[in-house]
Design brief:
By secondary structure, the chain is an all-alpha fold. The chain contains 21 helices and 5 strands. The strands form 2 sheets. Strands 3-5-4 form a 3-stranded antiparallel sheet. The chain is globular, with a radius of gyration of 31 Å. The two termini are 54 Å apart. 23% of the residues are buried.
Length: 472
């Protein structure tokens, strides 16, 4: 019996997760193996002072490759990198390697994407879930989002958009779940502290003499308590009972009040049904002032707001994701960035496609990259609806107005899109005919947009890819 208890105690003392012991970006055993088998990547070669690549290996620049876990393979602590080394690796990949000019961007993307999977694997093996770990996952999300935009014009041999989006959704979903776990732990901690304070207060105020006094005075106060109870019963009977119609009306009024509260939270202002003065004041604003206000780029947001907004934009139009966003805490749901992403999703579900494109102008550069994957779909759907609304051979829509309405960079891109979907384009404008638009035509390949390029040029790549928690 004592031996069994000792064995059980030994199992309980065994750590559940492995603790990394590798102090380099690549384990020593892997460095030796890849040098012997000539498996060193060109981006792991030595670099001179001018940025040129040399023809010999630099072990300090080697980064651990991603390898699938095999059955029977023992994971060693010497092959796993601890959190400080993973932070160093992430900074090296997203600052130094990402800006290399001696190889093509497709090669840089394939290298970083593989090494990021190895970083995520090391985090998972060690069971790390703190805030710094979330920042590392969020940095990977930023890279996948930026790469999806920058590599959109490449061939499938260089870039697989389906695989990149798969990694993006997996990592982003993990970030959202980690934030939810933190909320649950914080809520439980508050509940435990509150119950502990109540128990402590009860134990400090309660005394044995109080109990004796209660029992001693119980028989004397019986008649008095009976009088009080009779008075309460008579008062209750004197109040007229509410009918079923009145109860249903009160319930409907309370539900309408709840709906109005949610609408006020999403709109960011206290708007109710009876506030006609507010509606008249908002409608009196000029179009120029509205456009100027909506074109202001959002800045200053937390990591949680960034993750929730990216989750809405990557899964654009998904009703389950929109429901998740509406059920968030009020401070997160009503933040400027998250509320903008919610409004864009609602506009898409409401078939207000021009409104979606209009709201997107206020997105920061990283979020524009996430939204860019859906712009071609939105423009195609809007052209198809316009072909029904303006289906007349004698009706011509001006190219400049249509390009501005659907946020095409210029009339040249508009002409290419219209001709791709079967619409007739003349020197005067676009002719929408219901039978001309071909819904069976596949969507055009997404192209890089000048509006997004201009915003990306005004920000450094390291600032775009590294979250604030990793910039030290």
């Amino acid at each position: 019996m004592p031996m069994i208890m000792a064995t059980d105690k030994k199992k309980e003392d065994t750590p559940r997760f492995l603790v990394g012991a590798c102090l380099g970006m690549c384990p020593y055993a892997e460095v030796r193996l890849r040098q012997r088998e000539n498996l060193v990547h060109p981006l792991e070669m030595a670099v001179d002072s001018n940025g040129g690549r040399l023809n010999y290996v630099q072990p300090r620049a080697m980064v651990k490759e991603f390898s699938r876990s095999a059955a029977g393979h023992e994971i060693k602590a010497s092959d796993i990198r601890p959190l400080p080394v993973l932070i160093k690796t992430m900074k090296y990949l997203l600052t130094s390697v990402c800006q290399r000019q001696d190889v093509s961007w497709a090669v840089v993307y394939q290298f970083i994407s593989d090494r990021l999977r190895a970083v995520r694997q090391d985090l998972c093996v060690q069971g790390l879930k703190n805030f710094t770990c979330i920042q590392l996952y969020l940095a990977a999300v930023r890279f996948y989002t930026y790469a999806h935009y920058r590599t959109c014009e490449h061939d499938l041999n260089d870039f697989d958009p389906y695989l990149n989006k798969k990694h993006l959704i997996e990592t982003l979903t993990l970030v959202i779940s980690l934030f939810q776990d933190q909320d649950t732990e914080e809520r439980e901690h508050k509940i435990n502290n509150a119950s502990f304070r109540d128990d402590e207060l009860f134990s400090n105020n309660w005394d044995d003499s109080d109990e004796e006094e209660l029992w001693s005075n119980g028989s004397e106060d019986t008649s008095e308590s009976k009088i009080v109870q009779d008075a309460k019963i008579s008062e209750k009977n004197s109040i007229p009972k509410r009918t079923e119609t009145e109860e249903s009306q009160s319930q409907s009024q309370s539900s309408e009040a709840d709906i109005e509260e949610v609408v006020r939270d999403l709109n960011g202002a206290g708007i109710s049904k009876s506030s006609t003065d507010t509606e008249q004041a908002s409608s009196s604003l000029s179009t120029d002032r509205r456009e100027e206000r909506e074109h202001i780029m959002i800045s200053g947001y937390s990591s949680r707001e960034e993750a929730e907004a990216l989750y809405l934009l990557v899964n654009f139009g998904n009703e389950e994701v929109l429901k998740h966003a509406i059920e968030l805490r009020k401070d997160i749901r009503c933040s400027e960035l998250v509320s903008l992403a919610i409004k864009m999703n609602i506009a898409w579900i409401s078939c207000n496609y021009c409104r979606v494109l209009q709201l997107s102008t206020s997105l920061p550069p990283l979020f524009l990259c996430a939204f860019h994957a859906h712009m071609t779909m939105i423009q195609r759907t809007a052209l198809g609806i316009l072909s029904k609304a303006h289906s007349s051979k004698g009706l011509v829509y001006k190219q400049e107005d249509l390009a501005a309405l659907l946020y095409f960079p210029s009339t040249r891109e508009l002409k290419e899109a219209c001709r791709h979907y079967g619409l007739t384009v003349t020197d005067e404008g676009v002719i929408f005919v219901k039978s001309a638009f071909n819904w069976n035509t596949p969507m055009m390949k997404p192209m890089r947009v000048k509006r997004i390029e201009d915003k990306l040029t005004n920000i450094q790549l390291s600032e775009l890819l590294l979250p604030n928690g990793l910039v030290l």
